[in-house]
Specification:
This protein is about 40% helix and about 20% strand. It contains ten helices and 13 strands.
Length: about 375
Amino acid sequence: MNFFQFSKFDPNAQGKSPFETLLDLFLQLLTYTNGDFNEAMQWMNELDKEYKLTNNEYGIGDFIDDLKAKGYIDDKHVKGEIKITSKTEQGIRKKSLEEIFGKLKKTRAGNHQTFKPGGGDEINPETRPFQFGDTMEQIDFTNSIRNAQINHGIDSFKMQEDDLEIRETDFKSQTSTVLMIDISHSMILYGEDRITPAKKVAMALSELIQTKYPKDTLDIVVFGNDAWTIEIKDLPYLQVGPYHTNTVAGLELAMDLLRKRRNPNKQIFMITDGKPTCLKVGKRYYKNSWGVDRKILNRCMSLATQCKKLKIPITTFMIASDPYLQRFVQEFTETNNGKAFFASLDKLGAFIFKDFESGKRKTVY
């Protein structure tokens, strides 16, 4: 007797193998567990019990074997630990990019191009007739030969000026971006996980730049009591700490990084959920978590002014709704002549990506 197993129809899962379906979930869980394989697999087993993700033909054990065989995990460590590989790290970034871009409506914005035809590095799909002054490198020989065959015939083949077509290239503006991420303790306070959406945005943005805009640069700065840079590969493992919010240190480091970049277009994106509460004076940390401290605020405003003079706009993404925090952000933004978005966690990615890509159509000289 033949048996059939029916399940709920999922249009997104059509054509996916059991491994691919579980891999999507596994990559999501790694983001929440800061790249911890063991914790992610514990969640996988619990979810399998609750929602019957596997069946008699393909189980979690088979999935782990496939992860090893396909190079997603590595168990060749001294203590026998299983860790994710660089392939998995890239998979997490790609998954974040797909997740965030999937929420955005298709738009003509974000082609990263200026509206100036001419010498450049991006081929324009449109062609035009040859004009005096055009170079040989611009000639589309495939279309030009076809035109000559049509106009003059194959037997008496010749190519004249009227047969030539030109394929132009568009100049693509290059941008250096510093993404600042607040990793102070408040990013996980009050039962709300704010660091995971911030990490997802950073991973998606890094993957976008590496694949679509390889001539752009992206530096990632995290700031708590101090500020330091992290590599793109470190993003899945990023965690908050028992830190205050030293926005000044983050801005100073971001400015130092951008001074070394030769691109004329520079910008800072800052993701935070609170006010600056910390300042390093010599070797001592000056801290005040109560209200907006004028000493710390003045230093922030001074850096905002410096960035304005250097033509470095600061776009602040505030993921908190307290009125006094919004007032701080508004004052900071006006000083820099930048932009501010008061974004909910589920809209953070859309805000950042729309702003990032719309900015590519503008060139600052």
